[in-house]
Queue: 2 jobs
Job 1
Amino acid sequence: MLGKLARWLRFAGFDTLYFKNIDDDELINIAIKENRILITRDKNLYRKIIDKSIFVNETDIDRQLYHILKLYTANKNCYLTRCAICNTVLSTILEDPVKKCSSIKHPKTIKTFYYCTYCNKIYWNGSHSSKIINKLNNIQNDLLKKEEFVETGKN
Ligand SMILES: [Zn+2]
């Protein structure tokens, strides 16, 4: 199961679909029809669509993320622009509608919120989002350093 990886790829801004219970043929059809890369831990499924899939052997989320970001660099401008739950691109909203909704507990200093029109979830940049951004940046910076090292090694 790669549900956690799917969430992290959405945090990174990648258009990411995730299915818990779906048969291989249907998954392959979606990948081909929508020109998507299929990420799987299932070696048999991987072999069925080898030119459009990535086999993830790692079980640790950091290693999985490292594996994917090594192949596809995330655009920092797209971090946290998608709903982590459903993949919908978030809309920016100002504080007034959020303030009116007393059930939402958020820090008073927050002025801008992000809204998912599909699951009605509201997000804002707080300590949780800083941690996510830091983790993504750390992995990408680490990968950049390794690339530089490989390039230097050629000379
Ligand atoms: Zn959503």
Note: The chain has six helices and five strands.
Job 2
Amino acid sequence: MIQHGPVFVQSCGTKSHPDYFSALLCVFYVIIEQFEVHAMNENIAKKNEALAQTVIKGLESRNMTGFYAASKEDALKTALSLIPENSTIAMGGCTSATEIGLIDALKNGKYNYIDRAQMEPRASLMAAYDADIFLASANAMTSDGEIVNIDGNANRVSCIAQGPKRVVFIVGMNKICADLDSAIKRARNIAAPANAQRFNIDTPCKKTGKCFDCKSPDTICCQFLITRFSKHPGRINVILVNDNLGF
Ligand code: SF4
């Protein structure tokens, strides 16, 4: 039906089917086609929800906590429930937090948001280590709850590993991979080359869109962090959002 629908609609645009019956059939095909696309998206959403529950079990087995959010709006509510008012909050380049509206909510609410752009780098790093909350995303995650991140300056991965009292990850379901090998491949071949586009750097991935395992002085891939277990209950929290977030 999907294949035939557009062809039929195109023919309706000509004078080859000028009668009402053809016009009606056109409308019918368009409706069916939209229904099928919608049904397909619904199935992906259902699959993502089921997969999120698998990831949450994996996180629990690693002394970490997972939350499922059906939408960006749900994700924002869950994130704010994990961040008490008057907390000090730092962020490590988390596009996903911006996409769900969390950064605006923190800047406009009763929080002490550490704005790195307004601080001297060393001072902002020290403030981030001492923060109550650290916001991050993942470059990739496995369905068993391992979190993979690559960093250039290591401010992000070091704060994930140690320092801030609580880490809140905002992770779109587009980041979930079957196993650690595919998660590392995603981090290196999708997340890092996309991240490279944000900077004025000279790396092979910026020109080709693919990782060359470079040793360029401009490389943004200096440190790899795999978070596979937390010694501290309640410190690592992952909000899995049924949407495509970040890269
Ligand atoms: S080419 Fe270099 S900078 Fe780019 S993703 Fe690969 S290792 Fe990182």
Note: The chain has one domain: 37-241.
